[in-house]
Input
Amino acid sequence: MKKPLTTAIYGLMAEFDNSTDLVVATKAAYAAGYRKMDAYSPFPIEEASEALGFHKTRVPLIVLVGGLLGGSGAYLLQYWINCIAYPLNVGGRPWHSWPAFIVPTFEMTVLFGGLSGVIGMFALNGLPMPHHPLFNVDRFSAVTRDRFFLCVEADDPQFDLVGTYQFMESLQPLSISEVPH
Amino acid sequence: MREGPEEKTILQDMPWPDEPPVMMPGQTYGTVTDTIADAVLKRPIGVGWLSGLFIAGMLVMVLLVAVTYLFIRGVGIWGIEIPVAWGFAIINFVWWIGIGHAGTLISAILLLLKQTWRNSINRFAEAMTLFAVACAGMFPLLHMGRPWLAYWMFPYPSSMGVWPQFRSPLVWDVFAVSTYATISAVFWYVGLVPDFATMREKAQHPLTRKLYGMFAMGWRGSARHWKRYESLYLLLAGLATPLVLSVHTVVSFDFAVAIVPGWHTTIFPPYFVAGAIYSGFAMVLVLAIPIRKYYHLEALITMRHLQNSAKVMLATGLIVGYGYFFETFIGMYSGSTYERFMLQNRWFGQYAPLYWALILCNILIPQILWFPKMRSNTVVLFLVSLDVLIGMWLERFVIVVTSLSRDYLPSSWGHYAPTRWDWAIFLGTIGFFSAAMFLFIRIMPAISIFEMRQLLPEAEVKAE
Output
């Protein structure tokens, strides 16, 4: 379902050519009270997400839960199969010969932990999302190469086309673009 | 060399002044991106690549013919017989899966150890892992005799009312190898997503743009996305590290849990893992040396990478040597007639030439890597790597065949010799692997672009 458009544009975007300027600008925008914004870069910059006030992700929790479910599921399945559903005497070993069950348990912990982490990361990031308003700005394609962007979104309560524009100018970016929807 | 404090990232990584750098100086975000992406997007398809793919493709045809004939006639076309029921299929399975291990070692373990030089070789090493595991996976399936019933290996509620027997290492193997293949594939894909976004923006043709765009999933480099991405990448590395060690451990359990002389030893898991990494790094060098030359990637894959890989090979080769020594020592020390006979049979039996060839290939020849001059000669490195690949294959032959052909009862002894169909399938998988590598370097960025940008000195955020 498409969200109804409440703002005339998506936001204002400033362009920088190095990571330090981006982090400085993001910190300044955060200090100026902007919250609905995001920094964009061609490679991960730890300081950028910190500057946005984005400190914690839920990815590790998802991996932990996925891994625990996978591991305990695998163990219980083996218990049920070898002790209840289809008990098989192998060299007189006990039905519940748990050391032998450890290997598949471990493998399934890794499998489910890993897969749920991947799915969780993409889901939290809202990907796949083939189109995004930012792609309307031609300059933005350089974010996959050598440019760094800070976009303040129009639905930020502090956003004001003129005021935010002036604020961005004070950050001395290479360019400022309006991002249409 | 450029001067200045921004050199820090590379300098930090340079323990000795005469050590070659991880990346040649003078690179920027743009040049790194172009060098890697243009090898795929701009470079015309050359005669060398085409003829390489042609030869590999012919071998794939050989594989298809051999597999078809196998499906028609059954495993009787191979040289396997009782007592040697594990011929080429298991030798090749272990060999291929071992080769795959270096890719995960480079991408996961070296990431956790903060060995940033790995950023230039992890991508194609992971591709190598994936294709090697694909080749490895074929063998147990084909060896089953009725490969179309392969799904019987998985625990599912069947109308027959039977379930897998979880006390068997062969069932563990199913879980270990399928998990390994899946996790390697997603790790590789996750690493590729930001680079697919780069390719999407750089591609000229609308169709290629669309295809790369599809796989990039709309990646836009958001700081929040990167944060989750990095968190996941690290966690996957943390999960893949014990996983890769577990895979060859479980493969060695296939042998060590059996009571066959020469197999039933506790040294097998670590010795198999070391051997896997040994052959894997050899394959990395066999691939990296020609790739960096023909695609002009010397500035990104420097002598530093080749020398480091050579050092890993030397170290793991010594561990393998230690394994051979202890196999011998324990065989003598155990006082067991059968163990002692197994040694005698390896040294002087019908397969003795292969054993001595393996000692030559795996232990003696690689010792020349002690000399820095040899480590910095790409031709020598390439040849030593090929030699190690052959040696590690011989090792698996010796383990599988000598032990099985002469076990406890002389009345059940036998002889094993591969048939032409054994060779056809083995060469066919080499063709499949090469064809997949040839296609990979023309379709995907062979080096991780975004991780190379991170290595640049200007990537560091300077404190105000």
About this structure: The CA atoms of residues 154 and 160 of chain A lie 8 Å apart. Chain A touches chain B through 71 residues (CB under 8 Å). Chain A has five helices and four strands.
